[in-house]
Amino acid sequence: MAGRIASLLAFALSTFVATVSAAECSTPTSLPKFNNTKLPNPFLFNDGTHVRTKEDFTCRQKQMAALIQGYEAGSLPPRPPVVEPAFTRNGSTAVLNITTGFEDNKISFAPTMTFPEGTAPERGWPLLIAYSGLSIPVPDGIATLIFDNSAMGEQNDQSSRGVGLFFDLFGSNATASSMSAWVWGVSRIIDSLELTPKAGINLDKIAVTGCSRDGKGALMAGAFEPRIALTIPQESGSGGDTCWRLSKFEQDSGDVVQQATEIVMENVWFSVNFDNFVNDISVLPYDHHSLAALVAPRALISFENTDFEWLSPLSGFGCMTAAHTVFEALGIPDNHGFVQAGNHSHCDFPESQNADLFAFFDKFLLDEKNATTANIFTTNGLFNGTVWNASQWIDWETPRLL
Ligand code: MCU
Fold first, then answer.
1. What is the rounded distance in angstroms from the CA atom of residue 390 to the CA atom of residue 388?
2. Which residue from 1, 75, 223, 245 has the least number of CB within 10 angstroms?
3. Which residue range or ranges hold the 4-O-methyl-glucuronoyl methylesterase-like domain (predicted)?
């Protein structure tokens, strides 16, 4: 009875609370007057009004996605007219040869796939897309696909700007960063799998992973490609599951971490436009908790390593703590995990983290009924003496979105 009254009440409330219709959702790519030294509130629209419902939040996500592209990722082109896959399987391995682009300008790339033994489930195999190679263990029953992201958008150093297959198609002056080029490539892989039923992939059960620079990229893919069910960035550090503001704070506190001013000098993971903001990051109307918030309500678990100061350990923990409020507000805290430990080399996945990782695979890719991902949010707290104080950075109450 109480439950019925509560749901009637929720229904009544939701009919009175004004929601934002698709037509009203304005998505500018910049907010010139914005300035906030704290993490921007993900539950405020660009005009400062409150996000109250889940429907509001989908508009808010569109706003954050547009801002992230505007300030740091460059623009992500839509699906082009040509997507032509050719799938060749040989035993447990296969090649998915993808030709894509425009009638007069096409590129081709050919990810390799590995299939589990045995008969495929009725709806096909779940799939893990791994940037450049696998650096996490994969449970039985999941197919894997290796995506050569660096061929799609090079990432050697500054000279990689505008170089790679994506830029052969869209021009070396395209605003997209290498990470956006990779997202675009992942989307074409998924288009191709949709067009290739004989590949036998369950399109509702696709995960993405990558480590370090490729971990930054995996988070971007999960944020911008809604067909990804599970996102697993590994030791992504700055520019990944850390926040620009928090990394700067760590650096100002005396730690040697990577921050925005350095990252834009090192590589082409961000658009040229981002150079204009790295010295004054409080003008960014988002931070990377907002990037992680784009993954919701889909699942996200990120792994970090406190042995490497450069990865900005406080920033990773603080940033994902802020992102977690979004999953809480949507009533799905178990869809977001964070595991931060030490005592292992960079990108060397310690066995002690298998249970947490496998819980996410079990629940979100393998549909195991008994799988639970509750309370997988842990850190060893080794932040090189710098202190995380949530109220210094997070000035919002987490709403319960209707
Ligand atoms: C953690 O990712 C990067 C880092 O941002 C770079 O500064 C460093 O040079 O390379 C890391 C990486 O990708 O290592 C494989």
1. 6
2. 1
3. 101-331
